[in-house]
Design brief:
It is built from 4 helices and 8 strands; from the N terminus they run H-E-E-E-E-H-E-E-E-E-H-H. With 247 residues, it is of the alpha+beta class.
Length: 247
């Protein structure tokens, strides 16, 4: 009898572990798909843990790829996110996220002569006033919306990356509250827009040159480089002519 009970307990524990592991794997994949679709660029996650009792957990190694047309592989790398979710809301149309604390925030701010990656990603997001896309299939479920009541980005660092220069710049902590609260939820894309807009605003307040200044600087350095090359070619041509004239 004891052996039977032991086997039953072992089976129950094994089933629980199997379901929990697959739950977290499914949650990780769900985050990747939802975020990638919302941002229009690839989002990957290394791991996810979430307590089915408290709703507290963590997301590890979240990476947001740079939009097309930029050299750096990622726009944002988040080492770890501490989250607290209202578990009951996971089965509703609006997921309530009570708290998100993001540590080890690395943002690559890359500029070209015509644009920068943060504003490119913002421009790729659906307009806040755009009508939601409705799936015409009869079995389609409504898109999930979210509320984030408290979001903190702790000790973020911007890695300034241009065609002519690269430098790390520390930023002050960023805190946003009640994202989507007044409208009873927003799309993941709209939440991302608000977060990226706050990040972009932080660049200016921290004294990081805005995109227009960087573009002008890049143009000036490119023109200066072209002028120096032209002068060098002219000097070389004059030297060759002088060599033949002496013969």
């Amino acid at each position: 009898m004891k052996k039977i009970l032991f086997v039953l307990v072992l089976l129950v524990v094994s089933a629980g572990v199997f379901l929990y592991v697959n739950f977290e794997a499914g949650l990780r994949r769900g985050i990747e798909i939802a975020a990638s679709n919302a941002l229009g660029t690839q989002v990957t996650v290394s791991g996810v843990s979430l307590s089915p009792l408290s709703g507290e957990g963590s997301i590890r190694g979240l990476h947001i790829a740079n939009p097309e047309g930029f050299d750096a592989p990622t726009l944002m790398d988040l080492g770890s996110l501490e989250v607290a979710v209202n578990l009951k809301s996971l089965v509703s149309d609006v997921i309530e996220i009570e708290r998100v604390i993001v540590n080890d925030v690395q943002v690559t701010y890359e500029t070209t002569v015509l644009n920068d990656n943060i504003r490119t990603l913002l421009n790729n997001l659906p307009s806040a006033n755009a009508a939601p896309v409705v799936d015409a299939s009869p079995d389609a479920e409504p898109a999930k919306q979210i509320i984030i009541r408290d979001l903190k980005l702790l000790q973020p660092q911007i890695n300034l990356h241009t065609k002519v220069a690269s430098a790390p710049v520390p930023l002050p902590d960023i805190e946003l509250t009640n994202i989507g609260e007044q409208s009873n939820g927003v799309t993941v894309a709209e939440a991302a827009r608000q977060i990226l807009t706050a990040l972009n605003r932080s660049l200016t307040t921290a004294g990081v040159p805005n995109m227009d200044v960087l573009v002008d600087s890049a143009k000036q350095q490119l023109e200066e480089g072209a002028r120096k090359v032209g002068d060098a070619v002219e000097d070389l041509t004059d030297g060759v002519r002088g060599l033949f004239n002496r013969q």
